[in-house]
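Supplementary Data S3. Sequence and structure tokens for construct A.
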Amino acid sequence: MSLISLAGELTETGHRLIQRVYYEDTDFSGVVYHARYLHFMERARTDYLRLLGVEQASLAIEGDVEGLVFVVHRMEIDFKAPARMDDVLTIETATEKAGGAKMILQQQIRRGDALLIAAKVIIAVVNGQGRPRRLPEALATKFLAAQAASA
């Protein structure tokens, strides 16, 4: 198995990651515990960055003098239907905006054709001291390339 398949794949609209639901993801009723969806979406966002060639640790430590860190500023999540143990989920991430001191990502979690979760994630771009900073143009271009391909 290649590392690329482990990290999902870049698509025409952004990124796609496949995840299986395990027992540890479920609550006493056998459905996925609501907070676990945040884990699935975080993994997808991290792998999206990874496949775009963005190494978050390097940005924070070896970047310019200020460093660069991505932090979730706000999330809007619409829980449409539950997932259950052994379901195979597809987590899709698409860039809506990348520029200034923020990025807006749209994420969906599906089981087959069924939409389970729809989320809008606003990411703040900050320096090592937690102060807002502009997303470097080269990084914004990487995020917007997928958005332009889907337009």
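Construct B, processed identically:
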Amino acid sequence: MESPPTTPPAFDYDQIPLGYYDEVMRTGHPVRRCWHRQKFQRALAALPPGPGLSVLDIGCFAGTFLGMLPGDRFPRQLGVDIIPKQIEWAASHYAAPYREFRAIPGLSALADLGETFDCVTLIEVLEHLSAEEIRALLGHVGRLLKPGGRFLMTTPNYASAWPLLERILNRASDVKYEEQHLSKFTYPGFERQLRAISPGFERDLELELKTTSHLLSPFVGAISEPLAMWLSRCRDPGQWRFPFGSLILARFRKTEG
């Protein structure tokens, strides 16, 4: 299988409107609202129960995911992104005494955060990175996690209906994806693809959960949003192994060594 492309993106992320995906989740088409809400709820359900955990959200954009996290379960929350104006928007809408947002110039700045975390999340960011960036990112995550900490990521599953959905979004959405998505992963080949990009990353990060989501439930939102959200919640992420959902969800554990 071919490795993901390594050419840096030409896409200018500054052109995305402020708070765009947060706005989509709250006021967009019902299917898109359910899509984003389900994505974040599934990620939250796959994190440790707490209380008293710290979490770093890499690529937090407008801060929507952290804005959903309770302060008692996660009393230390940090979101970082490379787009300063989106970080300013996130801070103005979601900052709290236990929740901070910080603009960073690039992935190398993760080495300068000066703390470690119980959880690191990467929600629909992996596909926006080149192979070199993914390799660097996995190295940083291994250092940023406390021993036994969890790294949770989601990314589109290109062995599902996602390629068709992406083409539809490229035609119908205000924000296009053809220039944004550099690395395309599949559920069957996910670990193999990561090993090809970053040999040895499993010395620090042990895969303990791989699943998919977003098979049919987001589309039920066109009929009933409450029903769509109930369908998404009725199956625990750890019990679902169907390989054809549109999003891959993977959780890694930082080894004790």
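The chain is about 35% helix and 20% strand. The two ends are 31 Å apart (CA to CA).
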